[in-house]
Design a protein that fits this description.
By secondary structure, this protein is an alpha+beta fold. The protein has three domains: 2-101, Helix Hairpins (Orthogonal Bundle), CATH 1.10.287.1260; 111-168, SH3 type barrels (Roll), CATH 2.30.30.60; 174-254, Alpha-Beta Plaits. The chain has seven helices and eight strands, in the order H-H-H-H-E-E-E-E-H-E-E-H-E-E-H. It has helices at 2-49, 56-79, 84-101, 103-118, 158-163, 189-202, 237-254; strands at 126-129, 132-139, 143-147, 153-157, 166-168, 174-183, 213-219, 224-233. The strands form two sheets. The chain has a five-stranded antiparallel sheet with strand order 4-3-2-1-5. The protein is elongated, with a radius of gyration of 34 Å. The termini are far apart.
């Protein structure tokens, strides 16, 4: 009976000593998470009202959220009586091991920071990188999200984007459209050049300056190839490209110009 009383006294002492701390820590944790949520929401609204680049908004919100949560977690552990000096040392050792295991993830984080600092592209730009092309939808801490023209979502790690080659088609407001049109040997080259010039001049989307360029580029195996270059607004690029292909295909035959196809002449020599 005496042993039971001793155990009950120890249990009561533990509850009195640590119970209040545990309850207080839980209350602080729940209340802290709620406050952090309000803070992050207010920051997002402030960023939306400001003139900050859309690329930075999700990154800053996520970074502030995680930083505040880590500080809250450390504070809660301190309330429970855990020695933070030893705990921080353990966290440092564990962080080193985790960092070595997750070196790729840390590289993606560093890549995200580099992208946001140097801004090789921003949200809304059309880029080509890592074998994919699309419009940048969001730049997150570890990944960049692209929307392709055929409505696919591509997620690319930031590490490769920050260190690899990248083409940004939205940096300049204008783009050059290149075509190669072939006519048959024996066709009138001057006539072909005149027809292409007329088609270019009839399209209001093609800029007058810089002036379109037309030249005889190649005497190929089955055709005489004309190189055509014209400048357009970036948004008109693909529409102009496809429309001109269609116009040339329909107009050349009407003007007596033949669009050749690959062919080969075979000469048979008979030995006597």
């Amino acid at each position: 009976m005496e042993k039971i009383n001793v155990y009950l006294e120890k249990a009561n002492e533990l509850i009195t000593t640590y119970g209040i701390k545990v309850i207080g820590a839980i209350v602080v944790l729940v209340l802290g998470l709620w406050i952090i949520k309000l803070i992050v929401r207010s920051i997002r609204k402030a960023l939306d009202r400001g003139k900050m680049d859309d690329s930075l908004k999700p990154f800053i919100s996520s970074l502030i959220s995680w930083t505040l949560k880590i500080l809250l977690f450390i504070s809660v552990l301190g309330m429970l009586g855990i020695q933070m000096t030893s705990f921080i040392a353990i966290i440092g050792a564990a962080g080193l091991a985790i960092g070595m295991a997750l070196s790729g993830t840390l590289q993606n984080f560093a890549g995200g920071v580099m992208i946001l600092l140097f801004k090789p592209f921003k949200v809304g730009d059309f880029i080509s990188a890592q074998g994919y092309s699309g419009t940048v939808k969001a730049i997150q801490i570890f990944n960049t999200i692209l929307n392709t023209p055929d409505k696919k979502t591509i997620i690319i790690p930031n590490g490769g984007l920050a260190t690899g080659s990248l083409t940004n088609f939205s940096t300049e407001p204008e783009r050059r459209v290149d075509w190669t049109f072939g006519i048959a040997y024996g066709d009138d080259y001057d006539k072909a050049k005149e027809v292409v010039t007329r088609l270019l001049n009839e399209d209001d989307r093609i800029l007058k300056e810089p002036e379109p360029f037309i030249a005889l580029a190649e005497l190929a195996d089955s055709s005489v190839n004309l190189t055509v270059r014209a400048w357009v607004k970036g948004a008109d690029y693909w529409n102009v490209y496809f429309d001109m292909n269609e116009k040339v295909y329909k107009t050349f035959p009407k003007e007596g110009l033949n669009i050749p196809f690959p062919q080969m002449d075979v000469h048979v020599i008979q030995e006597k």
